[in-house]
Design a protein that fits this description.
Largest sheet of chain A: none
CATH topology of the largest domain in chain B: D-Maltodextrin-Binding Protein, domain 2
Order of helices and strands of chain B: HHHEHEHEHHHEEHHHHHEHEEHHEHHH
Radius of gyration of chain A: 26 Å
Shape of chain A: globular
Number of domains of chain B: 2
Distance between the termini of chain A: 36 Å
Number of strands of chain B: 9
Oligomer: heterotrimer
Strand content of chain A: under 5%
CATH superfamily of the largest domain in chain A: MetI-like
Helix content of chain A: over 70%
Structural class of chain A: mainly alpha
Chains: A mainly alpha, B alpha+beta, C mainly alpha
CATH architecture of the largest domain in chain B: 3-Layer(aba) Sandwich
CATH architecture of the largest domain in chain A: Orthogonal Bundle
Number of domains of chain A: 2
Largest sheet of chain B: 6 strands, mixed
C-alpha cells in the first residue's frame, strides 16, 4: 500500500491525466474483478447456469418437447435398478482404470527410451504425438476399419504370423470389444504420458543417477529409488488429467462400438447420450450424467490429496 | 475491458450472437438465415441415407428443381445415417432449430408427438386418393387422435439368400420353418457359409428379424389392451433357447457387432449365405455386376433370391420398416412445408421416387401394389405385398411411445444377445420383462 | 547410451522404440493406404487369398476427389477453422486475464475462484448439452457456428487459465514492481511488461486450445443441424456412412485430410505444444 501511494504521488507529477477508471484499476481487487469478469460471465452463463438446469432436469420427468413435473429422486432410484446403468458404471471404471495403468506403464517406458540421445530424436518426438493431436473421431474410424470382422488387417497379420487360426472378433465379442476400446484409448494417450513424463525426466539431475550408479545400484534400483520418486509429482498430475478425460470419454466408444455389443462397452457418457438424446428421455439422461459427477469428484479429490502429500515430501 | 471485448467480438463476427445481448434480434435473424425472400420459402428435409443411392440422387437432381418449379420453394435435402435421426430430432427440438420436415423411421413419431404439427388434413386426402394406408403405416403415424405425420413408404425385408448354396445342401426352395432353416444353416455353416444376422444396436435389421422371431414362437410384449406385460411366457423362453442354439449352429458369430450395413458387406463379400435385409443387397449387386461376383466368377446377383421369414409354431410374422414424414413444430416454414408434403406424396411426384427404388420399398398406400414395376424383375416380385399384414413392436398392444421406448432401448434384441453370450435363457427373459414392465407402468 | 554389448542396445532400445513408433504411427499409414486404394480391393475380406493390406498396386485419387466434390468437406473444414480460431481467441483472452488475476493479484476468494474454475472442468458435457440447447434456442443460435464458439470456451478457458498461471508464476514480480515504480499503472504494467514475456505461454495455450476445439465432438453433434454448418468431425461421421456402405475410401480420406490442418499447425509449433503440455502438467 505504501508503494502504491508513492507511485500515485509520483504519478500525479508524471501523468496528470489519470482517469477515475485507471485509478480504480490500481486497486488489486478492482483490477482482479475486471480481469475475471469475462471468464466469470462466460463460465457462469454456459456452465454454472446449465449445471443447475441439468440438476433440475434430473429431478423431473421431462421428455423431448414435453416439460416435466417434479418427481424428486425417482430417476436416480430407477437408475439403481437399471441393469444397463450398472453395466455402464462397471465398464467406465474398468475402462478408466485399465487404460490409465497401461498408459502410465507404456508412457513411462517410452519416455525412458526417448530420454536418451539418438539420431532423429527430435523428429521421433514430434511424430509420436500425432495420435494425441489428431481428432479422436477420425483416428477411431481408422481403428474401426482395422478391427472390422470381415476386413481386419490385424487379423490378417496375426494369421500370417501363425498366431491365430480363426478370426478374432474384435468388436463383436463383449470382452474383446472392451479390450479394443481400451487399446484405442491407450494408443491415443501414450504420447501424452510419454511427452509429459519425458519433460519430467529431463528436469531430474543426471548426477543423482550417476551417484547411485557409482554406489553400485543396478538400473532397476536406480529407477525405483532415484528417478521414480522425483517423477511422482509430474506423474500424478498427468494421471489426474488423463483420468478425468477417460472417465467422461464419449467419442471413442461412440464411433468404435456405439456402446455395443449388447452394452458391453457402454460408458456413462454414451449411455447418457443414448437415453437422453437418442430416446428423448431428457431427464433420465441428465440423471445418468449427474451420477457421473460424484464419482469423478471423489477420484479427483483422492488424487489431489495424494499429490498434496507427495509435494510435502 | 469488457467493452473492448464486445467490440472485438463484433468486429470478428459482424453481428451474430453478441447482437442478441445488445438487442438486435433482427440482426441475428438476418445473419444466421440466408435471406430467402427473393426465391420464395425454403424447406429443409431430413432423411436417412437411402440404401438405394440412386433415390437420393433423384431427390437432389430432379425433385429439388421440380419443387422450385412447381411450388416456388427452395428444397434442401439432407441425408444422414438412419441411426442418427432420433438424436438429431431430439437435438433439433431442444435447440428450437433444425429441419422443417423429418422422415422418421419406425414409430418414432409417437415419441415426438407433442412437437409435431397436426397433418391430418394432408394425410386423410392422400389416403383417400391412393387406396388407403396400410395398417402398419397407420399405426405408427397416427396416435388415435390425429395424424402425427404422413406415411411415406415401407421398406420391405426379406431373406436374401444364395440360391446355389442352398441347393447344394438340399433346399431348392427357401426353408419354410425355423427347423428347416436351422437344418440348412447347420449344413451351410459346416461348409464355411454360415447364415448372417445382426444382434447389435441398429434401427433396421435387428428389430426386423428378432421381433418377428419372437412373435413366430408366440411370444409378445404386451396384451392387446396395451397394459399387461406378457413377455415372461413359456413361448418367449422357448424362442430364446431356440435362438441360442440357432445362433451357435448356423450364424456368423461376428453378428453381435454388426450394424445395418455389416450383413450387406458380408453377403456381398461371400462370407454368409443368407440374411434378412431389404432388397439393397440384390439391387446393389445387380447395379454393379463386375464388382460383385460369386466365387465362380459369375455376377453375384444371378445367384440371389428372396424368401420370407420362416414360420414358427405361432405362424409367420414380419415387421417391415415404415417411414413417416413429420412436420416439426419449431419450423418457421410451416405453410411451405405443408404444401411440400402434399406435393411430394402426390402420385405423379412420388412415382419418380418409387421407380428409383426399384422395389426396395413399397408405397405406404395400397395403390402402389398395382404398379408395373413389380412385373419387371421376378426376383423382386415377393416384395410387392410386404405392406400387408406386417406387425409392429408393441404387438399385440398399440405401437405407442412405450413401444417406441422399448424399441429404442433394444430390450428385445438384448434379451437374445445376452442369452447368446451365455446368460441362462430364464434370466435373460426375466431381465427383459422387468425392463419392459418399467416402461409400461 | 546403454552400456554394454551391441545386442543390448538393440534389445533394450531400438526394438522397443521401433515397436512403439510402429504402433503409434501405423494407423496413419493405414488411413493413407485406404484413401488411395480402389474400391474393388477395398472390399476384399481378409481371408481372401489376394488380400494385400500394406500397399496397393493401383492407387487412385478418386476417393479424395469424390470427397472434395461430392460432399461439403471443404465447407466443413472452413467451418471448423472458423470456429476453432474464434473460440481460441476468446479463450486466450479470458484465460490470459483470468490467469494473471489468479496468479499475480491478491484479492478475497482468489483460492476458491481458482478451485471453482477447476471444478467446471469436471462437469460432464453430457449433462450440460440439453440445458445448453435451451440457452442456444433462447439466443437463437441453433444451427449456427456461434453455438459452438460460445460453448467451446467453457472447457478451453479453464485449461488456458492454468497454463498461463504456470507461466505467470515463473515471471519475477520485480519486473512489474520496477515498472510501477517508474510510473506505470498496474494494468499497463501487466499489458506491456508481463504479457510480452508470456508470449511463449500464450502461443502454447493457443495451439492447445486450437487442437482441443478441432477435436470437440459432442456439442457439435448436438447443436449443429444442416450439412453446411457441420464441423469436420461431425460431417465425416454422419455423412460418409451412407446406408449400406461405409464409404471407407472417402472416410479415410476425410480422416486424413481432416487431420492435416491440426498436424500442420502443430508441426510449426511443436516446441510450443510440448511446452504447453508439460507446462500445464507442472503448473
Amino acid at each position: 500500500m505504501a508503494i502504491s501511494e508513492a507511485v500515485t504521488q509520483r504519478a500525479f507529477v508524471q501523468a496528470p491525466q489519470r482517469s477515475a477508471a485507471t485509478r480504480l484499476l490500481e486497486d488489486e481487487r478492482w483490477l482482479a474483478a475486471a480481469l475475471l469478469l469475462p471468464t466469470i460471465v462466460l463460465l457462469g452463463l454456459f456452465i454454472a447456469y446449465p449445471f443447475v438446469e441439468g440438476v433440475l432436469l434430473s429431478v423431473t420427468d421431462t421428455r423431448v418437447g414435453v416439460p416435466g413435473h417434479f418427481i424428486g429422486l425417482a430417476n436416480f432410484k430407477a437408475l439403481l435398478s437399471d441393469s444397463i446403468f450398472r453395466v455402464a458404471v462397471w465398464n467406465t471404471f474398468v475402462y478408466t482404470a485399465v487404460a490409465t495403468v497401461f498408459k502410465l506403464a507404456l508412457g513411462l517406458w517410452l519416455a525412458l527410451l526417448l530420454n536418451r540421445n539418438f539420431k532423429g530424436k527430435a523428429f521421433t518426438r514430434a511424430f509420436i504425438l500425432l495420435p494425441f493431436i489428431i481428432p479422436t473421431v477420425l483416428s477411431t474410424f481408422a481403428w474401426k476399419w482395422m478391427f472390422d470382422p470381415t476386413f481386419s488387417v490385424i487379423n490378417w497379420s496375426l494369421f500370417q504370423l501363425g498366431l491365430i487360426h480363426g478370426r478374432i472378433n474384435w468388436l463383436g465379442d463383449p470382452y474383446l470389444a472392451l479390450i479394443s476400446v481400451i487399446i484405442v484409448n491407450v494408443w491415443r494417450g501414450v504420447p501424452f504420458f510419454a511427452i509429459s513424463l519425458l519433460a519430467g525426466l529431463q528436469t531430474i539431475n543426471p548426477e543423482l543417477e550417476e551417484a547411485a550408479a557409482i554406489d553400485g545400484a543396478r538400473p532397476w534400483q536406480r529407477f525405483w529409488h532415484v528417478t521414480w520418486p522425483l517423477l511422482l509429482p509430474v506423474t500424478m498430475v498427468v494421471v489426474l488429467f488423463s483420468v478425468i478425460q477417460t472417465f467422461a470419454d464419449f467419442q471413442l466408444v461412440y464411433v468404435l462400438t456405439g456402446g455395443g455389443p449388447a452394452n458391453a462397452t457402454q460408458l456413462f457418457a454414451t449411455y447418457a447420450y443414448q437415453i437422453g438424446v437418442g430416446t428423448g428421455l431428457l431427464s433420465e439422461g441428465a440423471a445418468i450424467s449427474l451420477a457421473m459427477f460424484p464419482f469423478l469428484l471423489m477420484i479427483v479429490v483422492v488424487q489431489l490429496l495424494y499429490i498434496r502429500r507427495v509435494e510435502v515430501h | 475491458m469488457t467493452r473492448i471485448h464486445r467490440r472485438k467480438l463484433l468486429q470478428l463476427s459482424g453481428a451474430g450472437a453478441v447482437a442478441a445481448k445488445t438487442g438486435g434480434l433482427a440482426a441475428i435473424l438476418a445473419t444466421s438465415r440466408a435471406p430467402a425472400y427473393a426465391q420464395g420459402a425454403s424447406v429443409h428435409w431430413l432423411r436417412w441415407n437411402d440404401f438405394v443411392p440412386s433415390s437420393d440422387k433423384l431427390l437432389r437432381e430432379k425433385i429439388v428443381p421440380d419443387a422450385a418449379k412447381d411450388l416456388g420453394i427452395t428444397l434442401s435435402v439432407e441425408t444422414i445415417n438412419g441411426n442418427d435421426i432420433q438424436a438429431r430430432t431430439t437435438a433439433a427440438i431442444q435447440s428450437g432449430a433444425g429441419p422443417d420436415v423429418i422422415c422418421a423411421l419406425n414409430n418414432w413419431p409417437q415419441l415426438y408427438a407433442e412437437s409435431l404439427i397436426d397433418v391430418s388434413d394432408i394425410a386423410e386426402k392422400i389416403g383417400k386418393d391412393q387406396g388407403g394406408f396400410y395398417d402398419e403405416s397407420t399405426v405408427v403415424a397416427n396416435n388415435g387422435k390425429k395424424w402425427l405425420g404422413v406415411p411415406w413408404c415401407i421398406v420391405g425385408a426379406r431373406n436374401s439368400y444364395r440360391k446355389s448354396w442352398f441347393e447344394a445342401v438340399g433346399y431348392n426352395k427357401f426353408p419354410e420353418t425355423w427347423d428347416e432353416y436351422r437344418d440348412a444353416g447347420k449344413k451351410l455353416k459346416a461348409k464355411g457359409q454360415p447364415l448372417g444376422q445382426t444382434l447389435g444396436h441398429s434401427f433396421g435389421d435387428p428389430p426386423t428379424f428378432w421381433y418377428p422371431f419372437l412373435w413366430s414362437f408366440g411370444g409378445m410384449e404386451v396384451e392387446k389392451d396395451g397394459k399387461k406385460v406378457v413377455l415372461d411366457s413359456k413361448a418367449t423362453l422357448e424362442s430364446v433357447k431356440y435362438a441360442v442354439a440357432f445362433w451357435k449352429d448356423c450364424c456368423d458369430e461376428g453378428g453381435l457387432a454388426w450394424d445395418d450395413s455389416s450383413n450387406n458387406r458380408a453377403f456381398l463379400a461371400g462370407t454368409i449365405s443368407s440374411t434378412l435385409n431389404g432388397a439393397s443387397i440384390y439391387l446393389l449387386a445387380k447395379r454393379e455386376p463386375d464388382k460383385y461376383q460369386s466365387e465362380k466368377g459369375t455376377p453375384l446377383f444371378q445367384d440371389i433370391l428372396h424368401g420370407a421369414l420362416p414360420k414358427g409354431t405361432a405362424g409367420q410374422f414380419s415387421y417391415q420398416l415404415p417411414h413417416t414424414n413429420m412436420l416439426m413444430g419449431y419450423s418457421k416454414q410451416q405453410d411451405a412445408a405443408k404444401k411440400f408434403i402434399a406435393w411430394i406424396h402426390s402420385k405423379p411426384v412420388y412415382q419418380a421416387w418409387f421407380d428409383s427404388q426399384a422395389g426396395y420399398s413399397v408405397g405406404a398406400t395400397t395403390v402402389w401394389e398395382d404398379d408395373p414395376i413389380w412385373s419387371k424383375d421376378p426376383v423382386m416380385a415377393s416384395f410387392r405385398t410386404v405392406g400387408r399384414g406386417a406387425h409392429f413392436p408393441g404387438y399385440a398392444g398399440p405401437a405407442d411411445r412405450r413401444a417406441a421406448e422399448v424399441l429404442s432401448k433394444y430390450i428385445i434384441i438384448d434379451m437374445y444377445a445376452k442369452a447368446v453370450q451365455g446368460m441362462p435363457a430364464e434370466d435373460a427373459v426375466k431381465w427383459a420383462t422387468s425392463e419392459v414392465a418399467k416402461i409400461y407402468t | 547410451m546403454i552400456e554394454g554389448a551391441k545386442w543390448r542396445r538393440w534389445v533394450y532400445f531400438y526394438i522397443p522404440l521401433g515397436v512403439f513408433v510402429l504402433w503409434l504411427l501405423f494407423p496413419f499409414y493405414w488411413m493413407l493406404v485406404t484413401s488411395v486404394r480402389p474400391d474393388r480391393e477395398l472390399y476384399r475380406p481378409w481371408m481372401a487369398p489376394n488380400y494385400a493390406p500394406f500397399w496397393t498396386a493401383h492407387p487412385t485419387l478418386v476417393h479424395i476427389t469424390d470427397l472434395l466434390t461430392e460432399t461439403l468437406f471443404i465447407r466443413w473444414m472452413a467451418n471448423t477453422l472458423f470456429i476453432a480460431i474464434v473460440s481460441t481467441l476468446i479463450s486466450l483472452f479470458c484465460g490470459l486475464l483470468a490467469g494473471y488475476a489468479l496468479s499475480r493479484l491478491k484479492f478475497p476468494f482468489a483460492g476458491s475462484l481458482g478451485t471453482g474454475i477447476f471444478i467446471t472442468y469436471l462437469v460432464p458435457q453430457t449433462l450440460l448439452f440439453i440445458p445448453l440447447a435451451d440457452i442456444i434456442r433462447n439466443f437463437r443460435l441453433g444451427d449456427t457456428p456461434w453455438a459452438l464458439i460460445l460453448t467451446y470456451p467453457t472447457f478451453l478457458i479453464p485449461f488456458c487459465t492454468w497454463l498461463l498461471m504456470g507461466y505467470f508464476k515463473a515471471i519475477p514480480r520485480e519486473l512489474e514492481e520496477c515498472a510501477r515504480i517508474d510510473g506505470a499503472t498496474r494494468w499497463k504494467a501487466m499489458l506491456y511488461i508481463v504479457f510480452p514475456i508470456a508470449v511463449p505461454g500464450i502461443l502454447s495455450a493457443g495451439i492447445f486450445a486450437f487442437t482441443l476445439s478441432w477435436n470437440e465432438f459432442i456439442y457439435a453433434l448436438v447443436f449443429l443441424s444442416s450439412a453446411e454448418q457441420k464441423t469436420v468431425a461431425v460431417g465425416v461421421t454422419s455423412e460418409l456412412v451412407r446406408g449400406d456402405v461405409f464409404y471407407w475410401g472417402q472416410l479415410m480420406a476425410g480422416a486424413l485430410l481432416g487431420s492435416i490442418p491440426v498436424a500442420f499447425i502443430y508441426s510449426f509449433f511443436v516446441e510450443y505444444y510440448v511446452a504447453g503440455l508439460t507446462g500445464s502438467v507442472k503448473g
